[in-house]
Design brief:
Layout lengths: L7 E4 L11 H4 L6 H11 L2 H8 L4 H11 L4 H4 L17 H10 L4 E5 L3 H7 L11 E4 H4 L6 H11 L6 E5 L2 H9 L3 E4 L3 H11 L4
Parallel strand pairs: 1-2, 1-4, 2-3, 4-5
GO molecular function: (S)-2-haloacid dehalogenase activity
Pfam families: Hydrolase
Protein name: 2-haloacid dehalogenase
Length: 205
């Protein structure tokens, strides 16, 4: 990794800028705690959803899952039309950081694992993303973090070398992949205050 401080900031979105909990939808629909836990573990799970981030349409994956669990079809089919209930609101403090960086003229970008259908629903609801110059969306590209290919595509699209960019993500595997490719990184686990301190220490804020 370059010893120079970065001058470009690249955000993840889910669990950095916005909360994401599949339970946010299904805890409204499944009152029994044990059944809810089973459903989120075995049926509509984050691992299952990852297909969408990699490019698979909601309609296709929901039909396949409903065939596997026919007794759960009604609940499974609610996932797509009510998906926005899985993203209940912003992560506290990070939107202020985005606006502060933009006000300082820091180039802002994003690499996000997000499916095409979900992105089409979500993007109009999230105006803070207007501050970003470009966003690489995994479902559109059919490549997904932590694959090195998506970081290579992002560097090409953004027009900056990895050593010029500061990448923020909540996922340890994504952070490790970016670091191995020469990006400066911040593992977002301690909230906006720790991120702000890191950005200030690098002269970005």
């Amino acid at each position: 990794m370059s010893e120079k401080q970065p001058h470009v900031v690249v955000f993840d979105i889910g669990r950095v800028l916005v909360k994401w909990r599949i339970a946010g939808l299904y805890e409204k629909l499944i009152p029994e705690a044990d059944r809810l836990e089973w459903f989120l573990r075995e049926v509509v799970s984050e691992e299952w959803h990852a297909q969408h981030d990699a490019g698979k349409p909601f309609a296709e994956m929901i039909e396949e899952l409903a065939q596997e669990y026919p007794e759960e079809r009604e609940l499974i089919e609610l996932y797509a039309p009510r998906w926005l209930e899985c993203v209940p609101g912003p992560i506290e403090g990070t939107h202020d950081i985005v606006r502060a960086l933009d006000a300082r003229g820091v180039p802002l970008y994003s690499i996000t694992n997000f499916g095409v259908d979900a992105w089409a629903m979500f993007r109009p609801t999230f105006p803070v993303l207007d501050h970003f110059r470009d966003i690489v969306v995994s479902g559109h590209e059919r490549m997904i973090k932590p694959d090195a290919a998506i970081f290579g595509l992002a560097a090409q699209r953004f027009g900056h070398a990895p050593g010029e960019m500061f990448f923020i993500d909540d996922n340890a595997d994504n952070i490790a992949a970016a670091r191995a490719l020469g990006w400066h990184v911040h593992h977002f686990v301690d909230g906006a205050e720790a991120l702000e301190a890191d950005l200030r220490g690098r002269g970005l804020l």
